[in-house]
Write a structure and sequence with these properties.
Shape: globular
Mean pLDDT: 95
Structural class: alpha/beta
Radius of gyration: 13 Å
CATH superfamily: STAS domain
Oligomer: single chain
CATH class: Alpha Beta
Strand order of the largest sheet: 1-2-4-6-7
CATH architecture: 2-Layer Sandwich
Distance between the termini: 29 Å
Order of helices and strands: EEEHEEHEHEH
Low-confidence stretches: none
Helix content: 25-40%
Largest sheet: 5 strands, mixed
Number of domains: 1
Number of helices: 4
């Protein structure tokens, strides 16, 4: 899976550049997120602006990334489209993740550290 990564202060913005986060892409997504977390990244914004569809495998990879961060880290979501937001609501993941309209707002919320 192609992803862009940008470090802004102590926050890393990860932006998947594929339209789908599904069974075909979730393994490489999860692997890259694990690499970032193992390298010490603790505050991550997942910018889903380009992602139009997430299936249960993709959602599981996102949740796994959050769990890998542990209590000293945080992962928030930004740029969620209607279809993906419907999945977050249906699975109640909108109660697990803080979701922001833009990556800029998400970075601002994380800049002070985990909540």
């Amino acid at each position: 899976m192609r992803m862009e990564e940008v470090k802004i202060g102590n926050v890393t913005v990860v932006k998947p550049m594929e339209r789908r986060l599904d069974a075909a892409t979730a393994v490489s997504f999860k692997s890259r997120m694990a690499d970032l977390i193992n390298a010490g990244e603790r505050l991550i914004v997942l910018d889903l602006t380009e992602v139009e569809f997430v299936d249960s495998t993709g959602l599981g990879a996102i949740v796994s990334s959050l769990k890998s961060l542990g209590p000293e880290g945080d992962l928030v979501i930004a740029g969620v489209g209607d279809m993906v937001m419907n999945l977050f609501r249906l699975t109640r993941m909108n109660r697990v993740f803080r979701i922001f309209p833009t990556a800029r707002e998400a970075v601002g919320a994380l800049a002070g550290g985990p909540s």
